[in-house]
Amino acid sequence: MTMPPQGGSGQPPQGDFGGQPEGAYPAPGPGPYPTAAWGAGYPAGPQQPYPGPQQPYPGPQAQPADKGFFGALFDFDFEHVVTPRIVKIAYILAAVVIALLYFVFTVAAFSESVAGGFVVMLIVGPLIGLVYLVLARITLEFYRAIVVMGADIREMKNAQMRL
């Protein structure tokens, strides 16, 4: 690879270049674009000035009036969501159902044998209950995240349409 000619003479420029040894090429000019001395055909810089800061995000728009749980549940236009409201209740119900099933299986295991009952009560039951509780939590968080993302996308779309 050859360096482009400097000043038309084909010789490196002479003089003090900020601590570089004599005869070394100077560093390119400031900015991402090379200067005309470093090669022809490069643009001199950006053609348009920087547009400045963008408009701030206008924030959420006013939502329709809250219809309540049953009003949102029977909203057939799906303008109101019920998922964020029922996630807490669904998680509590899942925990209660898992605890009841743990109790039922422990009683059933004790009715078969005392040793089997202790194994279910101390080892198997808590592990299976914990796994199901974690799965219920992950599933409910997933559903809630999807609903929240949908609401955020709707807000951004409405804000973009207002601009």
UniProtKB/TrEMBL annotation:
The UniProt record lists the keyword tRNA-binding: no
Pfam family, one: DUF4282
Region feature (Disordered): 1-61
Transmembrane segments: 89-110, 116-135
Alphabetized UniProt keyword annotations: Membrane, Transmembrane, Transmembrane helix
Comp. bias regions, Low complexity: 1-15, 34-45
Keyword Transmembrane: yes
Biased composition (Pro residues): 46-61
Protein's UniProt name: DUF4282 domain-containing protein
Source organism (scientific name): Tomitella fengzijianii
